[in-house]
Amino acid sequence: MKTYREALIENTKVPVTQANVLVDSINTAYLSAGSGYPVVILHGGGAGAVTWYPSIGPMSKHFHVVAPDIVGYGESDKPDAAYDKTYFVAWLKQFLEELGISKAHIVGLSQGGAIALQFTLDYPDKVDKLVLVDSGAMGAKSPLLSIIGMAWLNIFPSALANRFFSRYLLFKRENRDPNHGLYSIEVLKSKGGKNAFMQGRGLAVSPLPEAALRKISNKTLVIWGENDRLFPVEYGVNAVAMMPNATLFKIKEAGHLPLMDQPEIFNKAVVNFLNDMEVIC
């Protein structure tokens, strides 16, 4: 019987390599597919690299896709740590060094977007193009019920909590492979699985100041689900107005996970942007 993670990897519909690398003292699992210029894709809080199951295949037709289980998630170690932007960026820098990646396109989803933003601020020469998907660190206010749902799932993970919180992640819950929700619960119930949420206390997604956003000169595509009930689309609108080289691409009938709600539209926008082709907004 396949595990939830194996089922999601199979759902990428392309050959995927699973590997591990030691980043300082942190055992880090990652997925890779395709060949060519590297694209590093950073998931949000929750399951891990397999969150990208709708996108790994289409991206890997054009690039070498590297999808790590960020420290604290998936099959990677989950140590006691700060789990703030500084901690995640230090881990990411060493992860890329261990893989011999000196520069790459970076795609970040939700909390992964916040990590990508801070990494780009700290190491702009290591980032080619930047894609931010319903990104953290761009706004401070989320609906109260969404925060309650997030806390419920992360503190008391269960199928019921997952069903409740999924309404804040997706335009339609049926657009997500059910194995993703089941794997998210499994990860949270694993040893240290709650550390990132409990010890991070939301610091990784705390808003960056306007002055910081104005410093990001890398060519950037900001993608947002118009129906995001966790991070409102206004976050993206306001951030793009501050960033000197950014474009906003809004996706209709999509929530916080547009790669699952509207995978064809999402993947085409990302691939076209990274290939220097027109992204029709």
Report mean pLDDT, rounded to a whole number: 96
What structural category do the secondary elements indicate? Answer: alpha/beta
Tell me what the CATH architecture is: 3-Layer(aba) Sandwich
Q: Helix amount, in percent?
A: 25-40%
Radius of gyration: 17 Å
Largest sheet: 8 strands, mixed
The number of helices is 12
C-alpha end-to-end distance:
43 Å
Adjacency order of strands in the biggest sheet: 1-2-4-3-5-6-7-8
| Structure summary, number of beta strands | 8
Helix/strand order: HEEEHEHEHEHHHHHEHEHH
Give the overall silhouette.
Answer: globular
The oligomeric status of these chains comes to single chain
Would you identify the CATH H-level superfamily?
Answer: Alpha/Beta hydrolase fold, catalytic domain
CATH class group? Alpha Beta
Uncertain spans: none
What does this structure look like?
The chain is an alpha/beta fold. It has a single domain (4-274), classed as Alpha/Beta hydrolase fold, catalytic domain (Rossmann fold), CATH 3.40.50.1820. The protein is built from 12 helices and 8 strands. The protein has helices at 4-10, 56-60, 85-98, 111-122, 144-155, 159-166, 178-189, 195-200, 210-214, 234-242, 258-261, 263-274, and strands spanning 17-23, 26-33, 38-42, 64-68, 104-109, 127-133, 220-225, 246-251. Strands 1-2-4-3-5-6-7-8 form an 8-stranded mixed beta sheet, with helices on both faces. It is globular and about 45 Å long.
Q: What are the main properties of this structure?
A:
281 residues, alpha/beta
Topology:
Elements: H1 4-10, E1 17-23, E2 26-33, E3 38-42, H2 56-60, E4 64-68, H3 85-98, E5 104-109, H4 111-122, E6 127-133, H5 144-155, H6 159-166, H7 178-189, H8 195-200, H9 210-214, E7 220-225, H10 234-242, E8 246-251, H11 258-261, H12 263-274
Parallel strand pairs: 3-4, 3-5, 5-6, 6-7, 7-8
Antiparallel strand pairs: 1-2, 2-4
